[in-house]
């Protein structure tokens, strides 16, 4: 079976960045760097559409049949 | 492979195992990616409140200014003396200390331990809480001895035309 893990790896990387940015947001907020806080919060929000885009692009990659196809027979 | 999770491991003759689940619980690559994208969405939403409060602080809404309140005339407060007053409301007792010719500090004097009134001891140059002998550093408000662990909330003081005014309460730092 052919597999495509590019999407999985990219999405995992995005999730990692999400975690890092969230942590930075909280820290920078308590350090009272509000501009930086807003910047990281914005980046965190922006990562979501990127993740959706990657998901849409990658969901039909790879050789495995989709759910509907698999259950046709 | 695709039927692996759909096989019945033994012959069965009953009325409960005759439902064909059609892989509905199987976590495949696509489902996993969907979970990851959804988690990214959760993170995005969860940072919004932080962004909102940060924006609020940036616009200066968090730093509330109270109407200036006269504490005392400069000539009535000698260096090393203290004055009691109430700020911002009449129930928030506070203390003003003149540390040097031009240095005034003011704190809300409810002890951060159990809210007893902290007073200024001129001889020892320290603020002391009578209840449990907590001590505070006069120049910063930080606790130096006893049970209190948090600093006294500072009050910003302004001197104009030989009159001392209380302007605003500094951010409470836990």
From TrEMBL, chain A:
Keywords (A to Z) from UniProt: Membrane, Transmembrane, Transmembrane helix
Transmembrane segments in this chain: where?
38-55
What is this protein called in UniProt?
Answer: Uncharacterized protein
Taxonomic classification, please? Bacteria, Bacillati, Bacillota, Bacilli, Bacillales
UniProtKB/TrEMBL annotation, chain B:
Q: Which UniProt keywords apply?
A: 2Fe-2S, Disulfide bond, Iron, Iron-sulfur, Metal-binding
Q: Name one Pfam family in it.
A: Rieske
Q: Where is the Rieske domain?
A: 69-166
This protein's source sits in the domain of life called: Bacteria
Residue ranges annotated as coiled coil are none
Q: Which PROSITE patterns match?
A: RIESKE, TAT
Q: Which PANTHER family match?
A: CYTOCHROME B-C1 COMPLEX SUBUNIT RIESKE, MITOCHONDRIAL
Which protein is depicted? Rieske domain-containing protein
Species: Thalassobacillus devorans
């Amino acid at each position: 079976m052919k597999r495509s893990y590019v999407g999985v790896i990219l999405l995992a990387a995005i999730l990692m960045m999400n975690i890092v940015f969230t942590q930075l947001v909280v820290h920078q907020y308590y350090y009272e760097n509000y501009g930086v806080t807003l910047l990281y919060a914005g980046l965190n929000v922006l990562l979501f559409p990127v993740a959706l885009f990657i998901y849409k692009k990658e969901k039909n990659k790879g050789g495995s049949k989709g759910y509907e196809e698999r259950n046709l027979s | 492979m695709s039927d692996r999770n759909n096989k019945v491991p033994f012959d069965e003759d009953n009325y409960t195992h005759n439902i064909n689940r059609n892989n509905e619980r199987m976590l495949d690559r696509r489902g996993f990616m969907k979970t990851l994208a959804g988690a990214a969405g959760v993170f995005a939403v969860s940072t919004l409140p932080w962004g909102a409060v940060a924006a609020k602080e940036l616009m200066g809404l968090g730093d509330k200014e109270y109407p200036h309140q006269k504490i005392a005339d400069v000539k009535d407060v000698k260096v090393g003396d203290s004055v009691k007053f109430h700020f911002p409301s009449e129930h928030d007792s506070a203390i003003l200390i003149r540390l040097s010719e031009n240095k005034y500090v003011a704190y809300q004097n409810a002890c951060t331990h159990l809210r007893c009134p902290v007073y200024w001891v001129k001889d020892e140059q320290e603020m002391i809480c009578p209840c449990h002998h907590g001590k505070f550093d006069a120049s910063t408000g930080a606790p130096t001895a006893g049970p209190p662990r948090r600093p006294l909330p500072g009050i910003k003081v302004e001197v104009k035309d030989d009159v001392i005014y209380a302007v605003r309460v500094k951010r409470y730092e836990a």
